[in-house]
Design a protein that fits this description.
Blueprint lengths: L2 E7 L5 H15 L6 E7 L11 H9 L21 E4 L2 H10 L3 H4 L2 E3 L21 H26 L5
Parallel strand pairs: 1-2, 1-3, 3-4
Amino acid sequence: MTYRICFVCTGNICRSPMAESVFRARISEAGLDDLVEVDSAGTGGWHEGDGADPRTVSVLEEHGYDGAHTARQFRSSWFSRLDLVIALDAGHLKALRLLAPTAEDASKVRLLRSYDPAAGVDLDVPDPYYGGLDGFAECLEMVEAASEGLLAEVRERMEGQVA
């Protein structure tokens, strides 16, 4: 049985593709790529069909991650096939929970930084879009820090599925 995760930000060109790429690498390193499917989407469709922001690609590739990506908009119908929907900030969390067709689907939505014990009370990954390259690097650091905790949760949820 495949465990499915979708990372969601606003336009699916900065934060969520970064989280998708980093987490896909973590899944691969853990030897779970045949058991876990990772993708991303945006709450809006403004950038559907576009690649990731060039600054996202630059920061990802500079740190050894895959920068290939095509933006798409999250659809309510996806909840039924997803096990976990990871929001990059509180606005996405709220939008996704409102979009969820059932209370069970709404319970699948979590904030990424909630998986980083060092994150403190501000669990938003700031949107780097209107800033410089340093904001994208900061975003990557936050995503990497939370990915370890998320990987631990995925392993726990999949316990018994991995032979």
